[in-house]
Amino acid sequence: MTSATQQRPIADGLFTWPAGSPALLGSRCQTCDKVAFPAQGSCTACCSTDVKVEELPARGKLWTYTIQRFMPKSPYNSGETQETFKPYGVGYVELPGALCVEGRLTESDPEKLKIGMDMDVIFYPYRNEADGTEVISFAFQPVA
Amino acid sequence: MDVAIVGIGMHPFGRTPALTGLQQGAYAAREALKDAGAQWSDMQFAYGGSASSGSADALVNELGLTGLPFTNVANGCATGGSSLMSAYNAVKSGEFDVGMVVGFDKHDRGAFNADPKALGLPEWYGEVGMMMTTQFFAMKITKYMHDFGITNDGLARVSEKAFINGAMNPNAWRRNPIGLEEIQNGMMVSDPLTKYMFCSPSEGGVALIVCRADQVSRYTDKPVFIKGAALRSRRYGSFEVFAPSQALEQVPGPTVDASKAVFEMAGMGPKDIDVAQLQDTEAGAEIMHMAENGFCEDGEQEHMLANGETRVDGRLPVNTDGGCIANGEPIGASGLRQIHENVVQLRGQGGERQVPGDPKVGYTHVYGAPGISAVTILQR
Ligand SMILES: [Zn+2]
């Protein structure tokens, strides 16, 4: 018996899903034009509640980064164990005309990361649930 | 009404399995009363804080049920600074003559466990592994090093100094000097910061007696006056811990705002400061906080550290008691430890680690999640 793998996004409203080419979702304040991520119902810059959800750019520049060397305690939930844990990169990527978004990086070798380098957002299976459902999250990947 | 600190007490920081956090707070309170020659029943009010050792006002069960108004303060890493500011305002207003500020804590080993919901953050943020204060500090210093030319040697020198100072402080947790190379080769926690560059959760208690200036002679011949105290939170655009996103245009953080306010309040500038205790959650924080508090330009820290300018015998001694790196961080007590150390230094009671030249003015600074900062200026 075969069946297509079930997938679900890690959170609703975080990015467009399912979609041909998914995108992160932010909210732009209609009063002061500032963008928030994740999308929220009010503006952290000016207190306005007049906001519109929009897709964020898919490519940006690495603003800063680090490597997480040890496995975080709960609420970390990746399906890894102490034995299978792999260090991962975390960084902020400056998305032009929007804001800097924090995300995991697909690269975990600090020698291969440079502030200012081009990064693309990608969507990938982050972990599997007990019934085999793939939980989809986002990350940033250096542009080849 | 001017306000002075007339008594200080401390339970050593570190690990004390035999005592609860509350008991360490009571110990500090008794020491402070002894130092001021005062009785608990003399205290007209108290402000206190503890993040994980219960309500601070439970101290009355240890010290005595005198009926005093005891207010619990909970403001994250700025709890101590906020307590002191509340006490300062209570006396300055003329409402009270003398009272106590106290903070204590006892945390589990390992990194602080953060709960996304409690901080208004989405669950996924923690699930994917971004709910780590250590990552924030590493990313902030990575960008700062890139922008202003600070090196790994600079980071290691901050830790080296912390352990040297801790070794001279009988109340410190880490009391052994650690060499530059060992610091740099220590286990990497979050690049570029090794385990010797971070402070850890710990235990301890600190208490202070504050008093109106015209009554200090009842308690001490070495009063230290509070010339200013300020607390600020983050503005839109400042880069802070636990932020899923960050505005494109960065604005100065709460430390910069609080620092400007306190210097204005005291009618002083950074050049007037003889000794400073700056939040060193990790080595990079001390470096950035030197500039954010106005003690140097961005990037100058590299040669200041290389020249030993922030050592006990340097031009601007920083974290003379070993700071958070050598003392660990019991959240409720950490900010008050800084005040305690400045009072020790301004009284000339620093022993081996005494800043030479009779320091007259001391500065303290705390910074913590989710983007708050408290600063004070003390003068003898
Ligand atoms: Zn707005």
Low-confidence stretches of chain B: none
The helix fraction of chain A, in percent, is under 10%
Order of helices and strands of chain A: EEEEEEEEE
Count of the separate structural domains of chain B? 1
Arithmetic mean pLDDT of chain A: 95
Helix count of chain A equals: 0
Provide the CATH architecture of chain B. Answer: 3-Layer(aba) Sandwich
Protein name (chain A): DNA-binding protein
Domain ChsH2 C-terminal OB-fold (chain A): 54-121
Pfam families (chain A): OB_ChsH2_C, zf-ChsH2
Keywords (chain A): DNA-binding
Walkthrough of the structure:
The complex is a heterodimer of chains A (144) and B (380). Chain A is an all-beta fold. Chain A has a domain at 58-142. Chain A contains no helices and nine strands. Chain A has strands at residues 7-9, 25-29, 35-36, 51-55, 59-68, 88-95, 99-105, 118-128, 134-142. Chain A has a five-stranded mixed β-barrel with strand order 5-6-7-9-8. Chain A has a three-stranded antiparallel sheet with strand order 3-2-4, with no helix packed on it. In chain A, a hairpin with a 3-residue loop joins strand 6 and strand 7 (99-105). In chain B, helix 3 crosses helix 12 and helix 6 crosses helix 9. Chain B is α/β, with parallel strands linked by helices and 380 residues long. The longest helix of chain B has 17 residues, at 331-347. The model of chain B has no long low-confidence stretch (mean pLDDT 95). The two termini of chain B are 16 Å apart. Chain B has one domain (3-110, 199-374): Peroxisomal Thiolase, Chain A, domain 1, CATH 3.40.47.10. Chain B is globular and about 55 Å long. In chain B, the strands form two sheets. Chain B has a nine-stranded mixed sheet. A two-stranded antiparallel ribbon of chain B has the order 5-6. In chain B, a hairpin with a 2-residue loop joins strand 5 and strand 6. Chain B is built from twelve helices and twelve strands. Chains A and B meet through strand 5, strand 6 and strand 7 of A and helix 4, helix 5, strand 5 and strand 9 of B. Bound molecules: zinc ion.
